[in-house]
Structures are given as C-alpha cells and as structure tokens.
Amino acid sequence: MKMNSKQSISLAIALVVIMLFTAACGNSASTGGQGGNNQQPASNASNNGGGDAPTQSADDKVVLGFSQVGAESGWRTANTDSIKASAEEWGFELKFSDAQQKQENQIKAIRSFIQQKVDVIAFSPVVESGWDTVLQEAKDAGIPVILTDRAVDSEDTSYYESFIGSDFVEEGRKAGRWLVEQYADATEPVNIVELQGTTGSAPAIDRKQGLEEAIQDNPNLQIIASQTGDFTRAKGKEVMQSFLQAHDDIDVLYAHNDDMGLGAIQAIEAAGLVPGEDIKIITVDAVKDGMIAASEGKINFIVECNPLLGPQLMQAVEDVLAGKEIDKRIVTEETTFTSEEAKAALPDRKY
Ligand code: GYE
To answer: Which part of the chain has CATH 3.40.50.2300?
Structure first.
C-alpha cells in the first residue's frame, strides 16, 4: 500500500511510541525484584540491616518500630508529629506505639517489634532504669536500637547505636544560672518550689541536678518543696495547689516542663496571686502555649528543649542500615527565652 507523507509520519510516530512502551515495560520487569515502588534511595539500605534475617515489608520499605512515651505534653505531641512526618518523608514504614507513660507497655511494644522483625527499633524510654533484658533480646535478634529524647542508664552501651536528644543537665543549669543572675543581690532567702517531671525519667533527674548544681554557691536560693507533676498540666495544677496551701512565702516556681508550669499558673491565679510577678516562673520546653504565657509575662524564663527529632532519627536509621558508623551521642541544639524574647520569637514558632 502506498502511503502519503502524512500517513508515513503517523506510522513512524506510532512505531516510536510502541518501542518506548516496550522498553519501559522491560525495564520495570527487570527491577521488579528490588521493588518498583517510589522510595527514597535510603530504602534499599534495609538489605543491610537487622542482622541475619533482615525483614522488609512486601513493598520493600524500611520498617521502623517506634515506642513513644505517651501524649503527656505539648512537647510530646510535637515530637510525635515530627517522627511521623519524617518517617513519611524518608519513605519508611513506621510502626508507632504509644506507651501511655508506662514502662511495661514500652517493653511489650519492643518485644512485639522484635517478633515482627522490624529493621530498626527506636524508643524514648519513659524512665532510665530497667531496660537491659529487653535490649539484650533486641541485640540477640540482631535488630539495631536507637534511643531518642530520653536516655537509659544501662552500663552496656552496645545495646544501642546512638542516643539522640537534649542535654537535660545543661537545661537545668541554664534555669539555675538565670536564677542566680536574677537574685544576685538578694540578701534574704529566695524560696523556690519545684515541679519535677515523671519520677525516674532522665529529664526529671537531670533537670533537677542541673539546677541544683548551678545554684549551690548561692545560699539564699533554697528549694523548699519539690514534687512530681508527671509532666502534665493537671498534675502541675494539683501539686501547685498543695504547695500554695503549705507555703505562703513562695518566690519562685521551677517547673520541669511548660505544661506543669501552665497548670501551676491556673492554681496561682486561683489563689489570687499574679504569676510572673508574685511568683517568678521558670519552665523548660518552649512549646507554643508556654511561649504565649511567657510573652504575656506569666512565665519569666523558658529553657528550650527541641522536640523536632524526627529528621535526625530517620537519618540515623538510614545510616545504621547502610552500615555507617554513627555518633553514640547526638545532642540537640537549644536556646533560652526571657518574656521579651518569647514575644519576639512567637510569630515564627511552629509548635
Ligand atoms: O520536656 C516534657 C515531656 O522527655 C524532653 O517529656 C522530654 C520531656 C519534655 O513530657 O514536656
């Protein structure tokens, strides 16, 4: 059959299209074994991880088991959001478990991750002690563990690849240094009450220690009462009420997080006192609600603790699975805010 030039151009185009299509199919078939999904390059790294039986989900994604402390504070919510968003960004499958502030729930979650043969286990240990048995189980299964946010006190540091999080002792020192500066000229006792975080948790132990260290050379600075408020607003309010009933001469409140400080502010106002004036308030975290209270002068000083640990964690997971050496300790950079500084920083604050 004789074709005119228009017909032969159409035929040529059709042939090219068919050739391209065939090539594309052939390609995807040949890479099918490694997963024809759109992952980040990192995802292939899972082939190296997890000891002798690396486990991947059907679509070959890296599987990360994460056991979170709970949902006790604004900090924790921001931390959870950061981890979930970053896992998605890295193309990892995240198995997320909320322990509701109970160690036994975390141990159960870790054991279930081991059973499911995830590629990496990460967790934020609610308390410091009592992890060796379950960490040994993860080690025996050849599953690498990364700690985020809070530390464990295990002597054997081979149980985990890295601990990513803040220096809580330094946070306490920052709070203490501000106090020392504020009351440098004090000639009379300055009565401090302390709302501690969850008993036995790294931030509660370290923030207490850091503040005590920083104020120890100033005999006027006295901690007259100290009790746990479990890092929650409700407990912070309740314990502050009891402090106010027991003492009519409180000068300063040091709360180990914003949420307890915010609960305490309610108790202080209910007692007819002015937070930030009658009682000076120092907190740790610098989450949105804390920063708002600081910008209103109700909190005088906030020590920042950064919850956005997701990207650092995912990077560490990627590196560990790629067989790279990672730092045993990755410290988060942080600052502090006076009321004035909080006011200035508030418009750009993301959490
Ligand atoms: O300061 C507090 C949260 O472990 C750093 O836990 C974290 C602390 C944070 O409940 O708000």
So the answer is: 61-166+308-331, 168-305
Per-position pLDDT tens, the chain of length 351? 444 444 554 544 454 444 444 444 333 333 332 322 333 333 333 333 333 344 445 568 999 999 999 999 999 999 999 999 999 999 999 999 999 999 999 999 999 999 999 999 999 999 999 999 999 999 999 999 999 999 999 999 999 999 999 999 999 999 999 999 999 999 999 999 999 999 999 999 999 999 999 999 999 999 999 999 999 999 999 999 999 999 999 999 999 999 999 999 999 999 999 999 999 999 999 999 999 999 999 999 999 999 999 999 999 999 999 999 999 999 999 999 999 999 999 999 989
Residue nearest to atom 8 of ligand 1 (CA): 203
CATH number assigned to the domain covering 168-305: 3.40.50.2300
Asked if 83 and 309 touch (Cβ cutoff 8 Å), the reply is yes
CA angle in degrees (0–180, nearest 5) for 82-86-89: 145
Alpha helices, DSSP H only, in the chain?
A: 5-31, 74-90, 103-115, 132-140, 168-182, 202-215, 233-246, 258-270, 288-295, 310-321, 339-345
From 72, 75, 168, 308, mutation site for ligand 1 pocket: most ligand atoms within 8 A of C-beta: 75
Q: How far is CA 87 from the centre of its chain?
A: 14
Classify domain 61-166+308-331 at the CATH class level: alpha beta
CB-based burial label for 308 (10 Å; 0-12, 13-18, 19+): middle
Cα–Cα distance, 228 to 236 (Å, whole number): 8
Residue 149 alpha carbon to ligand 1 centre in Å: 8
Ligand 1 centre distance from Cα of residue 305 (Å):
8
